[in-house]
Design goal:
Strand content: 25-35%
Shape: globular
Order of helices and strands: EHEEHEEHHEEEHEHHHEEHEE
Number of helices: 9
Largest sheet: 11 strands, antiparallel
Helix content: 25-40%
Length: 300
């Protein structure tokens, strides 16, 4: 497998992908972006590329003030919501993210050569794509790493204090079974424990240490010196059908199904800490689907 690093800045990114999650882009947006990029590359090069997951490495992150998102039943709903005269469905949250995508793929030696030859053309074409509903800009040159199955070659090219979203959804089942609680309680308790751990770590670094210095210390410290590996965050990872698909009077020629969002768990982890990890976890989000669910999960 090979990797492609895309430095970027994205504006107006959807940071409320479901009613239950605020503050992180959907895992399906991360994996979907990588999939679309590889389709674009295939069109430009005339070669075949197989998607093996995409990682989001975050340099900076800002959430914009919320705004009401209107019902879409009537034309005037959006205007009423903006004017404050119509109750919106929920508060929309947008944000700005800068960092790098690391896209992992399989390709023949000939296809890899063609990608290298068309790299500038690919970079220029990426402005036609978006990320999680936002506008994407490529901020630096693209970098290819051949024979990079784990992605470590690509990750080591990036600053260690940057953050990467790592799939930890399996912790929900493990914790729920161990503590005898359901998955919702497991999610809430794990998030509280993670926050308490973060506060304890911050206090142990001393009051005079700036936040930036703490981030660098965390990234450069060994596992024995510092137990805090990053904050656990809820993440929208896809949808699950609540009924069997059937034809409805929607004007569309294909079956329709009602579905509910699926909430998973991720760790916003220092990149250098993730590089040293040997837990068998993955920051590469890849699509996985069957007849009843469509989700993205970490792929080793």
């Amino acid at each position: 497998m090979h990797t492609l690093v895309i430095p970027f800045a994205a504006h107006n990114v959807n940071l409320r992908p479901s009613l239950h999650v605020v503050g992180t882009p959907a895992a399906t947006a991360i994996s979907g972006f990588g999939h679309v990029v590889l389709r674009l590359i295939a069109e430009i090069t005339g070669q075949s590329f197989s998607d093996r997951g995409s990682a989001l490495v975050i340099k900076s992150y800002d959430m914009l003030p919320g705004r009401s998102k209107a019902r879409l039943a009537m034309k005037d709903d959006a205007g009423k919501a903006r004017a404050g005269t119509e109750a919106g469905m929920f508060d929309e949250r947008l944000g700005i993210i800068t960092g790098s995508f690391v896209i992992r793929f399989e390709a023949s030696s000939g296809a890899l050569f063609q990608l290298e030859e068309h790299l500038i053309e690919v970079k220029d074409a990426l402005h036609t794509l978006g990320f999680s509903g936002g506008v994407l800009q490529v901020t630096d040159k693209l970098k290819i790493s051949a024979n990079d199955d784990s992605g470590l070659i690509a990750f080591k090219q990036l600053p260690g204090h940057h953050r990467v979203l790592v799939d930890r959804t399996e912790m929900l089942t493990t914790y729920a079974e161990a503590m005898g609680v359901d998955h919702l309680d497991a999610l809430a308790q794990l998030l509280i424990l993670s926050q308490e751990q973060r506060k304890a770590w911050g206090q142990s670094q001393g009051a005079k240490t700036s936040l930036g210095e703490k981030v660098v210390q965390e990234a450069e410290a060994s596992e024995d010196e510092i137990p805090y590996l990053g904050r656990l965050v809820p993440m929208s990872i896809g949808y699950r059908a609540i009924e069997l698909a059937r034809l409805r009077n929607t004007g569309m020629p294909y079956p329709h199904v009602y579905a509910e969002p699926v909430t998973g768990l991720a760790r916003l982890q220092a990149l250098s800490s993730y590089i040293r990890s040997e837990e068998g976890i993955s920051a590469f989000w890849a699509h996985s689907h069957n007849d009843r669910a469509y989700i993205s999960k970490g792929e080793i």
